[in-house]
Amino acid sequence: MVVATxxxxxxxxxxxDKVKENVSLAPYTSxxxxxxxxxxxxxxxxDELARIIKLLQNQDMDYIILGGGSNVLVSDKGVRGxxxxxxxxxxxxxxxxxxxxxxxxxxVFSNLANRCAAKGLAGLEWAATVPGTxxxxxxxxxxxxxxxxAGNLIWSxxxxxxxxxxxxxxxxxxxxxxxxxxxxxxxxxxxxxxLRLQNSTKEEATVKIEQFSAHRKATQPPGASMGSMFKNPxxxxxxxxxxxxxKTVKEIQSVDLELEVELVGEW
Length: 267
Fold this sequence. Notes:
By secondary structure, this protein is α+β, with helices and mostly antiparallel strands. It has 2 domains: 7-86, Uridine Diphospho-n-acetylenolpyruvylglucosamine Reductase, domain 2; 91-219, Uridine Diphospho-n-acetylenolpyruvylglucosamine Reductase, domain 3. The protein has 7 helices and 15 strands. The protein has helices at residues 7-15, 46-58, 109-118, 134-140, 149-152, 202-219, 238-253, and strands at residues 20-24, 36-43, 63-66, 72-74, 79-86, 91-94, 100-104, 121-122, 143-144, 147-148, 153-160, 163-167, 189-196, 198-199, 262-264. The strands form 5 sheets. It has a 5-stranded antiparallel β-sheet. Strand 9 and strand 10 (147-148) form a beta hairpin. Helix 3 packs antiparallel against helix 6. The chain is globular. The protein starts with 6 loop residues before the first helix and ends with a strand.
């Protein structure tokens, strides 16, 4: 009898063929670039996501969670450890005088906004052009056109060291594109959320989405990123020059320019 001793052997024993090795992450990111993950594991529901994360934590394995792959830049060198692909996409609508929707964290936010509009439910039209998933929106307080997650969130279900807990918008400590999660003040994983809606009509909600979409198309380039934004000049590196710009802004304006995208993997 062979006893599983390595952490990856335990993953195979518990999760079977869900475990994939040496998988390119480029197809799973908006930028369509990025090297391989040592191990890739998809999670098809919030419950499964919680089980996988607890298993990895119990085995003391390094991991990251990848949702829609927006707002992240994966290194060409790839990601060591485990990448959990969040495909938890359950959606449940609650009708009445104060409608809401409960969604799992792998739901694509723009798709949800359009589903709400199709049902005559307003409140998330601003999210129709927001890339990424509910989990990423909860994590980073995503927003557009005057709306944001902080304004819609009733509660988010997080996996903390104490188990599954619900946090209100106030407890999430939201600020501009930040939260207690993004600031590292709370070590937790977004599993699901309930979002506040308003009763409306399909026509009214759809028109507002069309207006926001038209504005976005007129002001922002379409499509995925094609890689580097600047060519390296002869004998130098564009990245080094950009860092000089950041230094100059700090010296003259006393402002720290921070990346909104997160760098993932080996850099």
